[in-house]
Amino acid sequence: MSVDEILERAVNGDRISMADAVKLYESDDLEKLGKAADTIMKKWHPDPVTTFVIGRNVNYTNFCDTYCSFCAFYRPPNSKEGYVLDDEVIFSKIQETLDVGGTEILMQGGTNPNLKLDYYTNLLKGIKERFPDIWMHSFSPAEIWKIADVSGITVEEVLRELHEAGLDSMPGGGAEILTEETRLRVSRLKVTWEQWMEAMTASKKVGMFGSATMVIGFGESFEERALHLQRVRDAQDETECFTAFISWLLQPENTGLKRLKKLTKEDYLKNVAISRIFLDNIPNFQSSWVTMGPEVGKQSLHFGCNDFGSTMMEENVVSAANTTHKVNTNLTLRLIREAGKIPAQRTTGYDILRVFDGEETAEKDFIMQN
Known about the structure:
Elements: H1 3-11, H2 18-26, H3 30-44, E1 49-53, E2 55-58, H4 87-99, E3 104-107, H5 117-130, E4 135-136, H6 141-151, H7 155-165, H8 180-186, H9 193-205, E5 210-216, H10 222-239, E6 242-249, H11 265-278, E7 284-286, H12 289-292, H13 294-300, E8 307-310, H14 317-320, H15 329-338, E9 342-346, E10 352-355
Parallel strand pairs: 1-8, 1-9, 2-3, 3-4, 5-6, 6-7
Antiparallel strand pairs: 9-10
Helix pairs in contact: 1-3, 2-10, 3-11, 5-7, 6-7, 6-9, 7-9
């Protein structure tokens, strides 16, 4: 089947197969892929609105015993360069986020073997007591599995306890490529793809939702990328646990994978488009401007993305790999408008809080911190 035939079927609402996805990855017709993805996105979101959330990354610890070869952020347990943020520091960061109209805290760290469940539940309770309106979109599957391991309980029990303490939803970080072939090569101690998926689907069972992610550039095959998408689509069919999908490129600088050739913006845009075409059951696709830069982020709004992601007042993990792109709320508004869209601030659950009509700007803004 030709690329044109595959795209026509997808635009008409038919599901494409893994073999179809591989065919699309092999294609060099980026413009054609982008047009099809944009058409499909507009079926989900017919109004010319691009959403974003005002949020902050809080990396509460960098101690980690997973030792991923592509991570420049972690420090081994007991390293003199490691840290666990004091609660008061975290509270201060949350207050700063609220002060500029922020609504979301994306709190993630390493798999710290010295932190048990009560650390997390006490921290979440303390946050919600002080800031009842902040949305805690926090802790990746690898962190959840580590908590379960050191606490001697199941992943579902961990998630239920965290949810009751104040966790609202769960980011899908750490998916990378959901095949053991690649995972064993670049992060052999990390959770398996089945464990990643078990944590995400369990989050739905206890009353939360999450996001699905994908990172390309590990030297994985097109077949592996297609299998990743198939596994995400299957899980969504079964549980509807994902509200959004986010993909980005490996940032190999300063990491154990610096020998790998860094992929291009065209590789990124192609992956965004193919993901939107394949994943016919996930409504929202976020741009990854933090790794690709604001201009490519703007381009992605014509390749299947309907959302500009988070303004991300603070970011440390990607920055540790020598990739630092910064935007604030008013720059986000400008970039969305330059793409021919109307910007709108949203919640983590994709409810619209405010539409920025005309040339309206944010009254309060911030400078991204590291």
